[in-house]
């Protein structure tokens, strides 16, 4: 039986393993295995909501083991250590608990087809002090850390009868930084209803720092301008053309020598693939450790190894690279699925073509801005407000549909509406 391993349970990896399980695993045509070092999956674009407590990851997180059981694939918990392409095995590191006790020994898994979908981590560009003093909002653990520190700072301020401010600096004004900035102001408004009556937006000092000329540099200027305007109205101090050169325990230093004081610092200025991916298995990687792939999403040096999502450097027809977005991971998962089926059946593989459906940025409950592209709009159309918010939420619903199908997703939406009545608006623990 053909052995297919998917390494990484992010948006693309989990969707692909689910599709393969439903088709090949269910009919015993292949043995599908998903490998991830975590026990559960959370859609990465939601992390800024987890960080501020407006989303309870205990409700929205998905257990890999339970999902695997329901969709005819196997789940192995572990961290990838190496790929042996000659023997067609991957090596997983030993797994220990917080006390250093061995839970799972190091082991090897055989594959016929391997799909790498490990996603990305934050890139600090070797800026001094960043790794020691900043929070990287690239995992649920980091989001928990932010929420704990944020709640502690608000408690300290409350104990001083509201004397002073909570200073938060966010480096990087891409989608994560912009959405977090807005979500923080929403959190302050919500906290007032939970016994923090002395809090208001004037007690929150958020600096959003961007090295480039404008925020949301990957999006069209008019969307960037609209988001900038909304953030300024909220009270966010947006600082463009400002490069951070050092992070200390209580401040950031800019290239111009300015000090930006902050009790909490978040680094969201760029991404890279994990460092251990560099030249792994003798495969071709780029300067940020991504696996270089052909248009079929197969790696350049091994047709039995695919790469999708943020981990893949895939070149488009115009010479640019496919951007690291959730919609790209979703599309790549569908293309990789079709190509794996074609490969097993001896058919020609199809090239992956990135279809930009537009970009949306949520400014919490205050606004949503973005552009829609494709067949709906015959070009590009700027949207904001309620319509944009509905489309933004629908992106997550599409991800849920890919994992659970229509009926379960509908039930989840119903449960979500019920929870809005039963559960607090903020997770405070």
Automatic annotation (TrEMBL):
GO terms for biological process: aerobic electron transport chain. Keywords: FAD, Flavoprotein, Oxidoreductase. Transmembrane segments: none annotated. Residues 3-333 form the FAD/NAD(P)-binding domain. GO terms for molecular function: NAD(P)H dehydrogenase (quinone) activity. Belongs to the NADH dehydrogenase family. This is NAD(P)/FAD-dependent oxidoreductase. It comes from Vibrio kanaloae.
